[in-house]
Amino acid sequence: MHLTLYRKYRPSNFNEVAGEEDIIKTIKNSLRENRMAHAYLFAGPRGVGKTTTARLIAKGLNCLTNGITDDPCDICDNCLAVNEGNFVDMIEIDAASNRGIDEIRQLKDKINYRPARGRKKVYIIDEAHMLTKEAFNALLKTLEEPPSHVLFILATTEPDKILPTIISRCQRYDFKPISFESTRDRLLEIGKSEGIEVDDESLLLIYEKAGGSMRDAISIFEKLISSCYGESITIEKSQKVLGVIPEKQLMEFLQIAREGDSYKGVKFLDKLWNGSVNIESFFRDLAKLSKELMLKDELTPEEGMPIIGAIYDVITKFKYEEDKRLLGYVILHKLSGEVSLPKTVYKEEKTGYIPEIRETNTEETLEKELSESEIRVTIDDVKRSWDEAVKRAKNEKITIAALLTGAFPVKVSEGTLYVGFYPENRFSRDKMEENQYRDIFLNSMRELTHPKLKIVYEIVGEKNKKTETGKSFSDKIIEFFDGELM
């Protein structure tokens, strides 16, 4: 029977869990010293290792060869049973389908029985936030004073929906989105094992699509492997298979809608349809782009919210319509008539450099004036232009945005902008020094600041140091995923 890649390459020991070094270190220490808590709460986005870590705990507690250990043997009957998901003393409960008080009462009736094959019975309650309030209340006493042979692990993507009284009885760990570097390394390992080559740009695109989820990244990777029929995975193939919609196309449609040219809009949508573009995905991306433009003050809420509202109103109302072109026509009509669109979507950044325009200037004269003048660009000019420069560069090469996620302007000295990367983002720094990436971003920054500006990429600072923009790298990641610190 064929196993999906994310199941085939599920971590079999703690050292293989990616991106959660601090959590794994703490749990390994607890196992090594036999000081495990009676209940744990694992919170975090989907696909980041919550259930996998819970299974590894069950394996570490019940290994027959090494005893209670942070390094299970992976060859004894209990370890193999955990790997296959059929270990009798590891009980996985899907709270989404077993959420009521009756199911919890049945659980309470069974926990007093001793383990059948291991030392501990490990109850893993997945999507724990789906339990009803009555079910949570029924679980309270058991969580507070469970039998010595029982350990509970609650996993959730929405910890704010879990009762505070439950949280207070658990040892809580917050799993974060997996970094690009960890995702890249894991996919390269899998690719090597499967005999598949993949280029760096495709890895960046996979990471963007997965949104920090290792499971989603591996699933997307498997889709690309299947689509490429044993050939190397290139960015061109990846973009086609994943249906990447260039931001330039989204902006073009907004412009058509603003002009109220229905004929041109219908032709545009038909062209997308004939090019196998998913029309609904196109408009969802348009709504997402409108949100991003509002966050960057390039659309006012009065301009952006009606666009988002019109799109989702039509998508919801016509969700059963098979011909999605018709859905697109209705959205086009709404945006052209009922919604007041901005006259211009992009707003020019005000920077410290404003070239003087003279009708009599030739290119040679302008070049001479620029070479003779001092490059007056400040770090504040760069900060104001940064997001726009990244966006313009992304329009030419989509993966640049991912490479610059952990980058920040450090200083401007003698006409040179120094861009910093933390040590863990060395790969991104190295890629940005390649001509194909460096020149695109340099040109974008020059358009917004000064045509003679130079850029140097360097490794600076410590992991948790605040950037010059006032945001730490973790702040940027939280903002990117619309999350919050818990």
TrEMBL record:
UniProt GO MF annotations: ATP binding; DNA-directed DNA polymerase activity; metal ion binding
EC number(s) given by UniProt: 2.7.7.7
GO cellular component terms attached to this protein's record: DNA polymerase III complex
Domain of life: Bacteria
InterPro entries in the record: AAA+_ATPase, ClpA/B, DNA_pol_III_sug/sutau_N, DNA_Rep/Repair_Clamp_Loader, HLD_clamp_pol_III_gamma_tau, P-loop_NTPase
Keywords: ATP-binding, DNA replication, DNA-directed DNA polymerase, Metal-binding, Nucleotide-binding, Nucleotidyltransferase, Transferase, Zinc
Record carries keyword Lyase: no
Pfam families on file: DNA_pol3_delta2, DNAX_ATPase_lid
AAA+ ATPase domain: residues covered: 36-194
Reactions listed under catalytic activity: DNA(n) + a 2'-deoxyribonucleoside 5'-triphosphate = DNA(n+1) + diphosphate
GO biological process, one term: DNA-templated DNA replication
Nucleotide-binding among keywords: yes
SMART domains, A to Z: AAA
Enzyme class, UniProt record, top EC level: transferase
Description of how the protein assembles with itself and partners: DNA polymerase III contains a core (composed of alpha, epsilon and theta chains) that associates with a tau subunit. This core dimerizes to form the POLIII' complex. PolIII' associates with the gamma complex (composed of gamma, delta, delta', psi and chi chains) and with the beta chain to form the complete DNA polymerase III complex.
Task performed by this protein: DNA polymerase III is a complex, multichain enzyme responsible for most of the replicative synthesis in bacteria. This DNA polymerase also exhibits 3' to 5' exonuclease activity.
Family under the similarity heading: Belongs to the DnaX/STICHEL family.
Protein name (record): DNA polymerase III subunit gamma/tau
Organism: Ilyobacter polytropus (strain ATCC 51220 / DSM 2926 / LMG 16218 / CuHBu1)
